[in-house]
């Protein structure tokens, strides 16, 4: 798989839409050895947000249970 098209397509913000994102995702889905994982723990107290978060870093590390 060439990197160039995958980098260029999402980078064109003016023309980016849900359909284009879906196309890029479908191309990646053709490679089952690639794994994508994402966890959004919530608003965690860190230096980036001046420790104004609602949970500790330890709680954020555990992630949210679904």
UniProtKB/TrEMBL annotation:
Keywords: NADP, Oxidoreductase
Superkingdom field: Eukaryota
Gene Ontology terms for molecular function: oxidoreductase activity
Any one GO cellular component localisation term in the record: membrane
Family the entry assigns: Belongs to the short-chain dehydrogenases/reductases (SDR) family.
Protein name per Swiss-Prot or TrEMBL: Uncharacterized protein
Source species of the chain: Dioscorea zingiberensis
């Amino acid at each position: 798989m060439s990197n160039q098209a995958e980098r260029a397509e999402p980078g064109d913000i003016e023309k980016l839409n849900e359909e284009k994102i879906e196309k890029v995702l479908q191309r990646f889905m053709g490679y089952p050895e690639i794994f994508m994982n994402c966890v959004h723990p919530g608003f965690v107290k860190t230096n980036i947000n001046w420790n104004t978060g609602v949970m500790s870093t330890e709680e954020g590390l555990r992630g949210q249970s679904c």
